[in-house]
Each structure stands twice: as C-alpha cells, then as structure tokens.
Design brief:
The chain is α+β, with helices and mostly antiparallel strands and about 180 residues long. The protein contains five helices and eight strands, in the order H-H-H-H-E-E-E-E-H-E-E-E-E. It has a domain of about 130 residues. The longest helix is centred in the last third of the chain and has 18 residues. The two termini are about 25 Å apart. The structure holds protoporphyrin IX containing FE (HEM).
C-alpha cells in the first residue's frame, strides 16, 4: 500500500484518472462486486506496483533432492532463496521494465506475463491464501483515500527509491494526509 501511494501521489495525471474511475464506479455500480470490477486502473496500478517495486522479493524453499543449477551443486536439505521478484525487472518478460506504467496491464493488448514472470503472491502449493483479500484491501483503500482525503507527498519531485528493512519500502517518502469531513 505504501508503494501504491508513493507512486500515485507522484503522478497527478494518474491520480486524476483514478479519481474519475472511482467516481464513475460509484455512479454506475449497484453492488460492491460491480464497483470493484470497474476499478480496472486501480487494479493495474496494484499489479504494476508489485512488479516494479518487487513487493515479494524472495521465497524460501528446501531442496528435497540434490541437483545442479547454473553450475552450482545444490544438496538435499539446502535452503534456497528464490528471487521471484527479480523477474519483474527483466527485459525478457517486460518491455522497459524500469518504467512504472500501469497501462501495460490495460487496453486491448494488455501484457500477459508468462508463468512465473510475475508472482507477487507466490506460486505452487503455498500460494498466498490471502491474495484475493489483499487485492480487495489495496484497491478499495486506494479508492477511498482518493475520494475522501487530501494527500500530498512531502517530496514529490524526488524519484521513488526503495529501501529494505528487511522488506522493500519507499525510501524517505512522507505523506501529509488530511481526511475530508463527510458533507
Ligand atoms: C499484498 C499483500 C500480500 C502479499 C504480497 C502476500 C504474499 C505472499 C507470498 C509471496 C506467499 C507465499 C510464500 C511462499 O510460498 O513461501 C504468501 C503466503 C501466505 N499468505 Fe500472503 N500476501 C499478502 C497478503 C496476505 C493476507 C491479507 C493474508 C491473510 C489474510 C495472507 C495470508 C497468507 C498465508 C496464510 C500464506 C501461507 C500459505 C501457505 O503456506 O500455504 N497474505 N503470501
């Protein structure tokens, strides 16, 4: 969520487009499910944030059998850190991977990452059990903050950088948030 806010509040055009999407969804939806389904840009922002800012850096696994990988002998029982997040920044999988561009997941030809290229919620038998809940939380929190709060970054002109503590966080970003009173 912190990367979502840091990315959105650096880009006034994106903020305006999201706000318009939320207003349309409010007007045209007759259920929560419909409302969420209309928030396509917000969903693309969430996906692009998880790709560009490596929300899930690594997964830990133990080798069941010995094998050789890229010239390295792995023994049975060795602990492996699999860098799933790195795929998101590889040109083999995404054009201009350094660029933050939610539009890549939208439109008539959205990028469809090949299996394994983008797995912010893991993969295999231990895939995140809360993935769907996390999606709803991030998208609806973003929508409600856009609508109900005045938010500004203290340093909007500085590029978004990451720090690790141990998980990735926006480096040095501070937000001023003022919640508007209901009319
Ligand atoms: C953006 C938010 C989230 C991200 C990026 C995320 C990411 C992940 C990842 C990568 C794994 C797999 C770890 C592995 O295979 O080693 C995982 C597992 C898990 N997550 Fe999440 N998660 C998120 C939110 C949540 C939420 C909201 C819940 C619960 C309400 C949740 C519950 C779990 C559980 C129970 C597992 C373990 C599944 C298992 O071992 O079988 N997660 N998560």
């Amino acid at each position: 969520m912190s990367f979502v806010l840091s990315a959105v509040y650096r880009c006034p055009e994106l903020q305006a487009a999201l706000l318009e999407e939320v207003a349309t969804a409010n007007e045209e939806s007759s259920s929560c499910r419909e409302w969420l389904a209309r928030l396509k840009l917000a969903e693309a922002v969430k996906l692009e944030v998880s790709r560009r800012y490596l929300i899930t850096l690594t997964m830990v696994r133990s080798a069941r059998v010995p094998f050789v990988y890229a010239g390295h002998q792995i023994r049975a029982g060795d602990q492996l850190l699999i860098s799933v997040g790195a795929n998101g920044l590889m040109e083999e999988y995404f054009d201009e991977p350094e660029k933050f561009d939610p539009a890549r997941f939208m439109g008539p030809n959205p990028v469809k990452p090949e299996p394994g290229a983008l797995n912010p919620c893991g993969m295999g038998p231990h895939t995140c059990l809360g993935a769907a809940l996390a999606d709803v939380q991030v998208i609806s929190t973003l929508a409600l903050l856009l609508e109900r709060a005045d938010i500004e970054l203290v340093n909007p002109d500085r590029p978004l950088e990451m720090k690790y503590s141990p998980y990735p966080l926006p480096k040095g970003d501070k937000l001023r948030i003022r919640v508007r009173r209901e009319q």
